[in-house]
Amino acid sequence: MNIPLSYINFHIWWKVCKPVRSKYRLSTNCLLVLNASYILSRYNNGFTRRRLRDFAAYYSDPKIESYITTLLTRNCLILAESTNKYQYYNISEYGIKIIEELNKSYENQLYLFCNKYNIEL
Question: Chain-centre distance of CA 35, in angstroms?
Answer without folding.
Answer: 2
